[in-house]
Fold Thioredoxin.
Amino acid sequence: MTRILSTAAAALFLATAGLVAVLPATARAQTAAEDPQIEIVEMVQGAENAPVTVMEYASFTCPHCANFHEGPYKQLKADYIDTGKVKFVFREVYFDKYGVWASMIARCAGPEKFFGITELMFKGQSEWARAGGDGAIAGELRKIGLLAGIENDALDACLNDAGKLRALVAWYQENATADDVSSTPTLFINGEKHPNMNYAELSALLDEALAE
């Protein structure tokens, strides 16, 4: 069953100690008053002028999202994104603090490495997400960052960035509210909302959109 975001759980998560408490125990940062205005980069693959845009809302801790990225997404990339037919936009959903930590590491090296790190996150999800307590999970996520070529100091800076954390959660909340996203993965094809689906269903919808 597709994971559903509980409204009550989301409200509690977003309100927790000004969000700084969701950082790893070793990562505490400056106050919000010291943070400059932070712009969140939209993570995009494919040709900017592609005739069809697919937007995915996904959580790094969602098993159904991991399954989507191990299967339908890879076929989508080969058949539609890499061939210039589809522009793909990835937007994170935060069910819990671990999803935020994963997002901060995935974004740590910028757009150039984001999708590669995302692939590692989903591929190893069953391991890092079940590593145990906060310290163990943070440690496993750091390993993924190191494997992707991010230096220790850069990882520390990313995980210490409380301003970025607040900006990411506010960005997620604004987007999910505007698009009425309550479960993951949720797909939008040229702005039309769709639930999780297999590749045959997705391909049929894309071919229909391309024919219009």
